[in-house]
Prior knowledge:
The complex is a heterodimer of chains A (280) and B (297).
Chain A: E1 6-18, H1 27-35, E2 43-55, E3 59-63, H2 70-77, E4 85-90, E5 94-97, H3 110-120, H4 125-139, H5 154-165, E6 172-176, H6 184-199, E7 203-207, H7 211-217, E8 220-225, E9 228-234, H8 235-279
Parallel strand pairs in A: 3-7, 3-8, 5-6, 6-7
Antiparallel strand pairs in A: 1-2, 1-4, 8-9
Chain B: H1 2-8, H2 22-37, H3 45-65, H4 73-95, H5 97-100, H6 102-107, H7 114-145, H8 157-181, H9 185-198, H10 207-218, H11 224-235, H12 237-249, H13 265-289, H14 293-296
Helix pairs in contact in B: 2-7, 3-4, 3-7, 4-7, 4-8, 4-9, 4-12, 7-8, 8-12, 8-13, 10-11, 12-13
Amino acid sequence: MEAPEYIIEVNNVTVRYNKATEKIDNLKEYFVKLIKHELMFQEFLGLQDVTLKVKKGEAWAIIGTNGSGKSTLLKVISRILKPYKGSVTVNGSMASLIELGAGIDPRLTARENIYMNGCLLGYSKKFIEERFDEIVEFSELEEFLDSPVKNFSSGMKSRLGFSVATMVKPDILIVDEVLSVGDVLFRKKCMNKMNEMLSSGTTLLFVSHNMATVKSMCNKAVWLNKGKVVMQGDINEVCDEYTNTISEKKRLEKEAKLKKERALDEQAKKLAANKKKKGA
Amino acid sequence: MALKKLLTDPPEGSFREIFKYKDLLVQLVTRDIKLKYRRSFLGYVWSILNPLLIMIIMAVVFSFLFRRSIAYFPIYLLAGRSMFEFVNTAVSKSLSAITENTSLLKKTYISKFMFPMSKITACMVDFVFSLGALILVMAFFSIIDGRVLFSLWNLGAVLAIIQGYIFSLGLGFLLAELHVFFRDIRYIYHAFSTMWLYCSAIFYDIGMFYEYGDAQSAAGSFPLATYLAKIIEYVNPLYIYIKQMRYFIWTPMLDEIPYWAQVTVWDFVLGTVYALIMFAIGTFFFRRNQDRFILYI
């Protein structure tokens, strides 16, 4: 069998959200709105006609301002959201660090949570048992294995989450700005682990606002704005263009602000002059 | 070979996908059971103690309330009530199974059937624990009567439990799915479950209705009670399971089985058909709407 050319293929994907001002979640409202013909579906396109083709071993950065659809794209790829139009094909195992510790139950102990989280990621109990020591060692939580996670600090929780999520070498690693928690040492440890995975052929999808990190980790980038792809290709080109546009935008905004201020000043001067005339 | 493929390679979003997550099911079920009794002094004993206490109260109240006496009433009561309690708790817990796990559903992909299913399975395990109360009461009456009230027939209760489980799964999936779109379902179900309790002949016997109906028709009026009894017997699947449960637990200790407690093959056929229909409806709607859950939670 021929290996597929792309490991991730996102073809013309559109994601539709309902941007209803108020959520209708009870029957009374539903019928009232139905009778008043207000049951309109206010659609909002989280992604519009996005195409992304990722080859094995590539490291892609997804950049863009807040609300540009970066997380939505990751959610579509990791099967959490179904696209409204278009298709997504993924050929390989995925580990997504979209939010560390999503499956962590604060009432359970760290030990129980490792099993729970591992199972949530689709591993068997036996598989987790074999890697249990490794996970514990990486998380540096040996002392607290049998205390409930609700007593943990947020850094400890994300350590636990990261250790479980990366216990196996996945074909694709999806990271969504998760490394902002934890102390410096652990963050470095995570970076090293990710780099190690990258060098052994794992494909990476990385969302971050930090251009320096992005440039050091990735070789390709896709830039999203309001759900549309603005540019994709080589990391340096896209990042530079992005930085330029952002600073250009900031500069324009500043100029507009200055202009407005000047206009207001002039108006004030005129008013003062008028007053003087009247007085005289 | 074909079966193996059917289990290991299920289409995305289908019910069969849960076989891929069977370890997760075990984890979720043990979590629910563990957490239920964590920090409680008596722990699992409550699974037995709770139905026992309620049974004692109900037995005392209802033996005063009804003049007609049912032999081994505490056992009759306990067998019926624990079955009802199992289905009722399972369904009401699975109602909020999807809406409670919002954070998980938004961040990872797992079979969504898993959430209601784990709740229902945990309830079934709890129900099996609670049968300890039944064993205690039966032992108690064995001592009083000076004869063994246990028999091999008792094992047949498994059949009733399986039907109840499948039925609960179906209803649980359906309501969990509806609850995502309409949060009213919870309140509607609570009102409905009260009605269900009274329509399931937990603390009375269905023979009462038939005799009253006979009296009605003898007096020349419309035998409403007979029709009510028929509705309970044939339209309420839960009563069918309760009846089966009693048939295996309670009737073997009687010298003479009352006509209204007789169970034929048709009761099993009807009970199974109800369970399977409910399961088919539940999985169908759940599967059809599961992709929209994330937009509503």
